[in-house]
Prior knowledge:
Radius of gyration: 20 Å
Order of helices and strands: EHHHEHEHEHEHHEHEHEH
Oligomer: single chain
CATH topology of the largest domain: Rossmann fold
Number of strands: 8
Amino acid sequence: MRKGILLVNLGTPDSPAVADVRKYLAEFLMDERVIDIHPFLRFLLVRGIIVPFRAPASAKLYQKIWDPKTGSPLMHNSRLQQQLLQIALGAEYVVELGMRYQTPSIGTALNKLQAAGVDSICVIPLFPQYASATAGSVMAEVMRILHKWPVIPPLSLAGAFYNHPLFIAAAVVNICRYNLSGFDHILFSFHGLPVRQLQACSPNGHNCRQEGCNDPITPQNRHCYAAQCHETARLIAREINLDPADYTVCFQSRLGRSEWIKPYTSEVIGNLAISGMKKVLVVCPAFVADCLETVYEIADEYQEQFIAAGGERLQLVESLNGSACFTEALKQLIQKERLRTAMVV
Length: 345
């Protein structure tokens, strides 16, 4: 019998056309784990304000990064990761790719595994740090679909891998392609989240205001997305011999007026330029595949902002994409989950 593997990333529009971007944004932002407010208010906000105004602008951005042959960077690189993992695992496994939003859907990917006759399924959300809006949403969707199956195979859900040695090693390999001595500072820029979502995931529901989020992982902060981000940065920095003064952890892509995790990347890069930093290297360890948030937001938008504030060069480090080391990390995650499932059974 063959083992089923489901890799899941966030998703991407089917094309950079406004209609497809509108469809993608609507599905994404209507997820109750992404915008966690009252359903009626979420509907009014998303359908009545965000999507109508944001879709045309976002479509223009997607057009800038869209490759006529391979499509969006996220889809291309996620497919590459699927293919490389299939090769690494061999014929004993069936590796499918699903996107939480749009195509190929999680349901489509699960149906392919079912048709292949797999006797178990291991789900790997491709988000190194756990957040309810990303990995949590993937797990909820998988369970929603599988509960309708007449026969549910043994299922394992891989957890966060923010501190996996091979994930850290893969990031280090990418970073070291650049001459670190040629940069004044390094930014670790992670995707942002509303602070209220950190509070919801905190033990006993305590009022997390980011105190302790930059401390080493403990039983008290182990579920905190920000704490996991800081731990990832700390582990990478240790491997490349960075002093704490040589790097900054920050958060990008905030939406709306509510408080998000700080410091904001957009503010940090401006302050660095004003303080005299001319060359900055940016690492995005929350993304394992390049996407709009890396190849446009960092490499284009923030680069312009940095130069306007007096800087000279803001260099993006590519995401893991087709990294052999990351493929091996995924393989080890699967083997760990398979062992754990066998012990439970």
